């Protein structure tokens, strides 16, 4: 059997494996595919008869690496036929039976079709090198994608590397020893109070792992995702990790629509144990636990509220720090509610540029209409008096009412 020599093949595989942080099996697979592409290039250059080589033409060819002999062979799987019309895919039954008498039509045999070393050519060798480099890059990207896909939607430690347009390019550690797996932190996923300097470190939420072989960072990370808030509370509050306290919902506005409004988050918590105060557990002694979260988020305001299965109570809690007098569930099917409170609580309930009520609506899933309790009661009284007047006039159409008139029942 012929063999095309590749001196130092064993050392080459080990060196590429170590340099690219890839398993040797991945390097061998990439090398086989690159050599096969080189063989295709060689065959196309020798195609004097201008035979049509389709994209699938060489699917029955493969490369066999010989680590001991430090070389490789080209093998082709051919089908046994009566008459041969394509030497690359078929072989005559009579030819095979000279070696194997029991061979039958339709069987397949694997044959060595390795060309002479000199014939393989410089052009094919260049093609092999180019394909190998590309396949190694693809293999490396695939390994990273598979590794980080398993930990998608978790929090990682990242270091700022450089800046591209409005995005910050960061580095996160990899289990394969790659110290600088790149991740992109887009402008919309950044916090307004963060100071991104080269080599500064941040906790980031792994939002998405990009598939494919496109250039650039494969990971998209976020500092603005609600998942980061959940992670920080889980790490600061032992009761959450132990399952005593649970996070029910989170509404976050890390990048408010106006620069005059700061970032803010509302988080609803609950517990299965009556003696445990879930809000107090999250805040901690003298606010130590929540302060640690606020510090990591660079001063972002955080409201921790108690979740309730009763929508009215839940909505009232969600509008904290405002004190709510009454919640009217106007339309349960469309989840519409009216909230009544004192005049001095209106600004607190609505919040600067509507941020507080907006977050409360997101947190609860209800459309919230805030009203002044006094004005609402007065309007109700006027509507009630109007309805009474209409009823009386309906009884006696000739009766005219003065604004302050006392209505007497006729004898």
TrEMBL record:
| Gene Ontology MF, one | DNA-binding transcription factor activity
Q: In this entry, which stretches build a coiled coil?
A: none
Question: Would you name any one GO CC term?
Answer: cytosol
- Pfam families with a match to the protein in the record: KH_NusA_1st (PF13184), KH_NusA_2nd (PF26594), NusA_N (PF08529)
Alphabetized InterPro entries for the sequence = KH_dom (IPR004087), KH_dom-like_a/b (IPR015946), KH_NusA_2nd (IPR058582), KH_sf_prok-type (IPR009019), NA-bd_OB-fold (IPR012340), NusA_N_sf (IPR036555), TF_NusA (IPR010213), TF_NusA_bacterial (IPR030842)
Tell me how this protein assembles. Monomer. Binds directly to the core enzyme of the DNA-dependent RNA polymerase and to nascent RNA.
Protein name listed in UniProt = Transcription termination/antitermination protein NusA
Question: Which organism is the protein's source?
Answer: Gomphosphaeria aponina SAG 52.96 = DSM 107014
Question: Which gene is annotated as encoding this protein in its UniProt record?
Answer: nusA
């Amino acid at each position: 059997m012929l063999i095309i020599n590749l001196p130092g093949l064993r050392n080459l595989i080990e060196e590429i494996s170590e340099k690219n942080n890839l398993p040797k099996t991945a390097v061998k697979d990439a090398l086989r595919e690159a050599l096969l592409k080189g063989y295709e290039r060689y065959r196309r250059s020798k195609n004097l008869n201008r035979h049509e080589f389709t994209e699938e033409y060489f699917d029955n060819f493969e490369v066999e690496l010989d680590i001991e002999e430090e070389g490789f062979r080209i093998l082709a799987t051919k089908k046994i036929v009566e008459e041969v019309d394509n030497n690359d895919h078929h072989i005559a039954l009579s030819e095979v039976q000279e070696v194997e008498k029991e061979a039958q039509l339709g069987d397949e045999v694997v044959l060595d079709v390795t060309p002479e070393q000199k014939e393989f050519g410089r052009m094919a060798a260049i093609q092999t090198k180019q394909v190998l480099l590309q396949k190694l890059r693809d293999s490396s990207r695939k390994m990273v994608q598979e590794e980080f896909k398993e930990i998608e939607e978790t929090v990682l430690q990242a270091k700022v590397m450089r800046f591209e347009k409005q995005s910050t390019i960061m580095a996160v550690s990899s289990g394969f020893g790659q110290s600088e797996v790149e991740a992109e932190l887009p402008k919309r996923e950044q916090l307004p109070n963060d100071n991104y300097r080269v080599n500064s470190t941040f906790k980031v939420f792994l939002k998405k792992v990009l598939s494919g072989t496109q250039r650039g960072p494969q990971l998209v990370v976020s500092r603005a995702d609600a998942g980061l808030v959940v992670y920080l509370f889980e790490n600061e509050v032992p009761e959450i990790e132990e399952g005593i306290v649970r996070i029910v919902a989170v509404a976050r506005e890390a990048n408010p629509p106006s620069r005059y409004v700061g970032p803010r988050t509302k988080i609803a918590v609950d517990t299965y144990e009556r003696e445990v105060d879930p809000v107090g557990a999250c805040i901690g002694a003298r606010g130590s636990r929540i302060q640690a979260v606020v510090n990591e988020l660079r001063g972002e305001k955080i409201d921790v509220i108690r979740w309730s299965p009763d929508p009215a109570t839940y909505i009232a809690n969600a509008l904290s720090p405002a004190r709510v007098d009454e919640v009217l569930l106007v339309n349960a099917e469309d989840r519409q509610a009216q909230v009544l409170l004192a005049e001095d609580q209106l600004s607190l309930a609505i919040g600067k540029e509507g941020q507080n009520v907006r977050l409360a609506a997101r947190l609860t899933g209800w459309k919230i209409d805030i009203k002044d309790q006094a004005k609402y009661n007065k309007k109700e009284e006027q509507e009630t008096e109007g309805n009474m007047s209409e009823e009386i006039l309906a009884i006696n159409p000739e009766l005219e009412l003065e604004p302050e008139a006392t209505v007497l029942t006729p004898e």
